[in-house]
Design goal:
This protein is α/β, with parallel strands linked by helices. Helix 4 (76-92) runs antiparallel to helix 6 (109-130). It contains 18 helices and 22 strands. The strands form 6 sheets. Strands 14-15-16-13-12-17-18 form a 7-stranded mixed beta sheet, with helices on both faces. It binds nicotinamide-adenine-dinucleotide (NAD). The site of nicotinamide-adenine-dinucleotide has 30 residues, from helix 10 and helix 11. The active site is at 267.
Length: 496
């Protein structure tokens, strides 16, 4: 791997057959195989079997049996213990999980290590939440209470069989942040990983078997989006679909879910604003804003890609950003010191380079980067455009690559600044950089986004709700909101 060795457990994992996990067993897929490649080298990692509608049917039936049977009969304390056991197994296999996301997705090792630690924390958090799932007691309705004594209370019950469709950009994390709350709530799961990055989900499947989850509680069906994904979203036996991916696919999921009116959660795209006020502390703002865009080489739903900089500091700020971007090390995720990895695929690279070309053609100034590196793998330099205007595609469209669009502003009126920041159909994330916390909080209250940071960007945490306003999605993941997304409320009234 570009001169870097994999751990023996990762090599052993790559050599095993990569099948589908259905009803507690690894089974063959009927939809052929797909080669998954290391995007930093273009070399094949493994042939992974694909399932289609037939396997989705089998997996949904297995999940239904488990939901009505073994999983429902298990005590909350036993479910808690199982999730804690899974977290320990993941901790013991942290190297394997991190290396799989590095070689399958291209992310640098420092991010993969961070995400594995976060994923373990996430499972522990939801394991601990199981015994705190609570209903409430309420005053009974008047027409019942008037006739004598009565009791009204609520129960929180699992939604049922959950379909979970996962993207490729942070493969293990997006799987865990769906799986952990669903299992904590008492749901059973059919998960479809992204066909681009199935490996860490398949390793997770083995850990779920090793932890001793009952058959059918978790089923993992790798497959193509238009085939297995579409079948899962439309399946009448699925009670809820949780999807993370592009806004365009999100629309298809909603249409597919209409048949049985299944519950839908959507975590979609973004074009998040970053506002740099004249009094920003540039020592932290320069690296912070650069990483807001370039973290995960921009393949990050939270990426802050529209940078609004006050004119009094614009030129200094852009120069410092350019110097920071120029100093970022691009390379294989296994290489020590790598800060930025490759784009996920040739097709995605072509899309990102097309955006760069269009921005130049539209009259934006290329202040840094802009080239694809002349080496194997799809490495694109961290790229900064200035002199951008609201109508340019580089300002309007989610690029999902290392491309930043800087715009200068002159006003200090917070409503006007917020209007610039909110000029997009998305609303996932955003950040404000200033030493004046009063200004910061007043501006945050005007920004239409689900997750806004002050003097940092994209500060997601296990217990902190995350999700989108506008076309960035429906619902929230993480924290209590993430658990609530897999729970129904049942109200009970008894005449006593
Ligand atoms: P994508 O929409 O192409 O694919 C996501 C998943 O959906 C994959 O598993 C894919 O196989 C599946 N899929 C594709 N077509 C489908 C269909 N017709 N029916 C059912 N499933 C289908 O997205 P991607 O390229 O994998 O991920 C990048 C996108 O994800 C970006 O837009 C990014 O902003 C978004 N994203 C959002 C968040 C968030 O939390 N809001 C997090 C990560 C990524």
């Amino acid at each position: 791997f570009d001169g870097h060795a994999l751990a023996p457990e990762t090599r052993a994992f790559l050599e095993r057959p990569h099948r589908l996990l259905i009803d507690g067993a690894w089974v063959e897929g009927s939809a052929g195989t797909r080669a998954t490649v290391d995007p930093a080298t273009g070399l094949k990692l493994a042939d992974v079997q694909l399932g289609g509608a037939a396997e989705i049917d089998q997996a949904v039936a297995a999940a239904r049996r488990a939901f009505e049977g073994s999983w429902r009969r298990m005590t909350a304390a036993d479910r808690t213990a199982l999730l804690f056991r899974l977290a320990r197994i993941m901790q013991d296999n942290a190297r394997l999980l991190a290396e799989l996301d590095v070689i399958d997705n291209g992310m640098p090792m420092f991010i993969a290590e961070l995400t594995v630690a976060n994923n373990v924390e996430m499972i522990d958090y939801y394991a601990g939440a199981i015994l705190r799932i609570e209903g409430s007691t309420l005053a009974p309705p008047r027409h019942i209470a008037a006739g004598g004594e009565a009791l009204t209370y609520t129960l929180r019950e699992p939604v049922g069989v959950a379909g979970q469709i996962v993207p490729w950009n942070v493969p293990l994390s997006t799987a865990i942040l769906k799986l952990a709350p669903a299992l904590a709530a008492g749901c059973t799961v059919v998960m479809k990983p992204s066909e681009e990055t199935p490996l860490s989900a398949l390793a997770l499947g083995q850990m779920i078997l090793d932890a001793g989850f009952p058959d059918g509680v978790v089923n993992i069906v790798n497959g193509l989006g238009a085939d297995a994904g579409a079948a899962l979203a439309a399946h009448p036996g699925v009670d809820k679909i949780s999807f993370t991916g592009s806004t365009a696919t999100g629309r298809r999921i909603v249409q597919a879910a209409i048949g049985n009116l299944k519950k839908v959660s959507l975590e979609l795209g973004g074009k998040s604003p970053v506002v740099v006020m004249p009094d920003a502390d540039l020592e932290i703002a320069v690296p912070g804003v650069a990483m807001a865009t370039f973290f995960l080489q921009g393949q990050n739903c939270m990426a802050g890609t529209r940078i609004f900089v006050h004119e009094s500091i614009h030129d200094r700020f852009v120069e410092a950003l350019g110097a920071f971007a120029g100093g970022m090390t691009l390379g294989h995720g296994l290489a020590p010191g790598t800060m930025l990895g490759p784009m996920i695929s040739d097709a995605h690279t072509a899309k990102v380079m097309g955006h760069i070309d269009r921005a130049v053609a539209a009259g934006a100034t290329l202040a840094a980067g802009g080239r694809k590196l002349d080496r194997p793998g799809n490495f694109i330099e961290p790229t900064i455009f200035t002199d951008t205007t609201a109508d340019m595609a580089v300002v309007q469209e989610e690029i999902f690559g290392p491309v930043m669009a800087v715009r200068r502003f002159a006003t200090e009126d917070l409503d006007e600044i917020a209007a610039l920041a909110n000029d997009t159909p998305y609303g996932l994330s955003g950040s404000v950089w200033t030493r004046d916390l009063s200004t910061a909080h007043r501006l945050v209250s005007r920004i239409r986004a689900g997750h806004v940071s002050i003097n940092c960007h994209g500060a997601v945490g296990t217990n902190v709700p995350f999700g989108g306003f506008g076309q960035s999605g429906w619902g929230r993941e993480f924290g209590q909101d993430g658990l609530d997304a897999y729970l129904e409320t049942k109200a009970v009234t008894a005449r006593l």
